[in-house]
Amino acid sequence: MTTPADTHEERLSGSVERVTFHSEESGFTVLRLRVAGQREPVAVVGLAASPAVGEFMECVGTWQNDRTHGLQFKATKITPVQPTTLEGKERYLASGQVKGLGNYYAKKLIEQFGDAVFDVIENEPERLLEVPGIGRKRLDMVIESWTEQRAIRDIMLFLQEHGVGAARAWKIYRRYREGAIATITENPYRLSLDIEGIGFQTADTIAASLGVERNSLMRAEAGITHVLGQMSSDGHCAVPEETLIGEASRLLEIDRPLVAEAVTNEKLTRRIVGETIDEVPCIFLESLHRAETGVASALHRLKRGPLPWEPLDPHDVLPWIEEQTGLELSPSQRSAVTLVLASKVSIITGGPGVGKTTILKAILSVLQREKVSVALCAPTGRAAKRLTESTGIEAKTIHRLLEFDPQIFDFKRGRGNPLDVSFVVVDETSMVDVVLMQKLVAAIPDRAAVVFVGDVDQLPSVGPGAVLADLIASEVIPTVCLTEIFRQAAESMIVVNAHRINQGEMPLTDEGEELSDFYIVPASSPEAIHDKVMQLVTERIPKRFDLDPVRDVQVLTPMNKGGIGVQALNAELQARLNPTAEPKVTRFGSTFAPGDKVIQTVNNYDKEVFNGDIGLIEQIDTDAETLTALFDHHHVEYDFSDLDELSLAYAISIHKSQGSEYPAVVIPLSMQHYPLLERNLAYTAVTRGRKLVVIVAEPKALDRAIRNCKSKRRLTGLVQRLKESGKQSWQNL
């Protein structure tokens, strides 16, 4: 408990002797400050951005007596400033804040330039070459670091003045560089669009402190963009106009007419697009409208024209396939092969064990015989790897296939530079959102054919749209829907139960003594589920099935929050499975250590690691402030300031698991998850397990998940566009 010692606000200045505690997430800091006139370092408590030993700070606040820690200076403001004494300047230069120096060169600079050392670095940096040992390379490091520190210091002062903590300063600086303050001042709402971790509410707070009126059109327009962005995060490409106006009015606490005026303005500037879907006026973000129209036009472009191979007679092709490959095709598989080989654009959909891979191998064997160039792709690295293993032909992620270029932040392949192939296979199509699909189909040349393969009954893509479902629903693309489970697959209870769940039936369990690949563990409460999940992952599954609890066992849960959500389960599993690993680093509310399983949470094209990729931390370098993780034989290095891109992955959301398979999955289901308990969620989770699936559930929750097939339809215009384009194409023939 703290009691007031002196309510008079004071200023303290001094160099940081020790950083006792600092939270990157909140900015909360406890440090020891060496202050002139004080015999002992002063304990300072407040908010600061990445304080470092040797850095000079100015603190504004009051003295308080803490019953546990004694006399402290409780700072309302902690600002990095340049020290004024020679000793302070030397300590600052030696602190590591200015890269390229250190103790030795800090001392040499003070000896050479004395009190003027900061002025020299600021205004005449070339004079540093006068110091023996400092060459051009070291000078460039000093100049770059000095400039960055000055810019960050200015940004921090600016943000603190407007009520924002320090944790995001580095990201803001890296995004806007020296133009940060000007950019934020001009339109503070850009922060919520451009900076990961800064939401609309934070940007709105900054805007208010900068004097933006509550009833300003800028604020109303930003609110509209925010609501549309939130709806797209839920998978929608469009929002009914009345819903949009109502939601924005409620969020901003302003009148509907002002929001309606802002909607009109945004339409005029083409930042949003109005269009009628099923006789309801709707609003699209311009980027999503462009993506939908691009998908529809590209698919109809591809449907026109001849096949890129000579017509093939099924009576010749099908026996040849069986003879050459040793495959025995069922009637449904024969129909599927025939359809795909006769179509410029086609779809193969079906659940596990229905022969999608067999059909693909058969088709590819024929096209290789015909010397047709092919390209295989999938949305994730893991899905591409599985496709490679199952077909024997290299498959790439869509991003690699389209040759993403971080310099231009776009793909090299597109309409003007199409892929040089004649047949494209897109696997796990249900995972592909409308924006990525538009980029992909635009890059497929007119002459080529394409087949989309996927399971339409799985959860739709994390990003906006329901592309595979819309393609099938449009009825303008030839589609094969496979339902027959083949004998070998039928021996797997995972496959059998996946299909039962998809049909709304309760899964079966094998009560025999032999090991099964599917179990249901009943539990009476969320607490009981938690305890059983811990026991299963850390003890029972590794012991009984000889599986590694970190590498082989994946917990898949419906929600992020709650006692059996992603965050809580990760903290507990980390404590049990990787308790002693060192060194540890804590950033943005998460603690990481070597050996931890992690998941990438955003696409990072520079590092070639994408949302949903799972890896293992191999090394943490606290001196260089870097973390290295291994993702599918690909090492990725992160600066500590980028660690908000990573989360622990002992447990992940079911949505994040799409396109991946794991040796064993453990699925907790509770009535806590009630809003998300839907059939396609349970079905997707079960189909992620390759060798073992264990559902730990309250019986009511499992029953709810299987019987509830009323998942909310995503609002898109793609079905309508495909049908309209189809009519136009037919009329033009």
From TrEMBL:
UniProt-listed InterPro entries: AAA+_ATPase, Coronavir_polyprotein_1ab, P-loop_NTPase, RecD2, RecD2-like_HHH, RecD2_N_OB, RecD2_SH13, RuvA_2-like
GO molecular-function term, one example from the UniProt record: ATP hydrolysis activity
Reactions performed catalytically: ATP + H2O = ADP + phosphate + H(+)
Binding site for ATP: G353, V354, G355, K356, T357
EC number: 5.6.2.3
Pfam families hit by this protein: AAA_19, HHH_5, HHH_RecD2, OB_YrrC, SH3_13, UvrD_C_2
Superkingdom of this protein's organism: Bacteria
SUPFAM superfamilies referenced in this protein's UniProt entry, alphabetically: P-loop containing nucleoside triphosphate hydrolases, RuvA domain 2-like
Domain AAA+ ATPase positions: 342-551
GO cellular component terms, semicolon-separated: exodeoxyribonuclease V complex
GO biological process: DNA recombination
Keywords in alphabetical order: ATP-binding, DNA-binding, Helicase, Hydrolase, Isomerase, Nucleotide-binding
Family assignment from sequence similarity: Belongs to the RecD family. RecD2 subfamily.
Job of this protein: DNA-dependent ATPase and ATP-dependent 5'-3' DNA helicase. Has no activity on blunt DNA or DNA with 3'-overhangs, requires at least 10 bases of 5'-ssDNA for helicase activity.
PANTHER family: DNA HELICASE B, DNA2/NAM7 HELICASE FAMILY MEMBER
Annotated protein name in UniProt: ATP-dependent RecD2 DNA helicase
Source organism (scientific name): Chlorobaculum parvum (strain DSM 263 / NCIMB 8327) (Chlorobium vibrioforme subsp. thiosulfatophilum)
Gene name for this UniProt entry: recD2
